[in-house]
């Protein structure tokens, strides 16, 4: 299933716009685009919401007919237990996370122990933990963690854009992780020369205009055959003013949805 995530509403959630979009507002905008899946990912207000506010958001999602996934950072036991409780409220079947949290950088051995300790709780809850590919851990190491944990409720959230920062090839990342991918972050990316030809800027691109060979991802991972969800997000730079930035973000979302749907 193709869905949207909070990174598709990054600037619309921002305090730099006149009326930042709430998570329920993002739900409503998602349904207006005929999308039935939303990933609340790295949305800071979520962890500050009261139980009642979380329940209200979950009720709104159900009323709109949305399936919800969650996203956070870190694999500390107490943190993931908290997200399992939030997942229960939303009836979310997937929690995306990253090995390193804001204040935690476990060794690979420690990460293995943490995962082995928490995975029985995910298995009992029927929730999948998806560890994202990114620059702070080699894709080969992440894949090895998944294999060694040997749990049907652990896999990889594939985001090949992230690994460029550690000089990994996005294409290689896709191929190395393919077997254990349980979630995909779908966005395009590109390099552009900085003014004066002194280096490059690496950032997002309108889907289909950048360097991401999404056909290769589909052929290699086969997410649609395997029931793996594809979550639209963006790396959209600030466009100079709130109106232009939000308008561009909405255009990128529509363009990405159209592009992904055209590949079905």
UniProtKB/TrEMBL annotation:
InterPro entries: IolE/XylAMocC-like, Xyl_isomerase-like_sf, Xyl_isomerase-like_TIM-brl. Pfam families: AP_endonuc_2. Keywords: Carbohydrate metabolism. It comes from Microbacterium gawkjiense. The keyword Nucleus does not apply. The keyword Metal-binding does not apply. This is TIM barrel protein. Residues 31-253 form the Xylose isomerase-like TIM barrel domain.
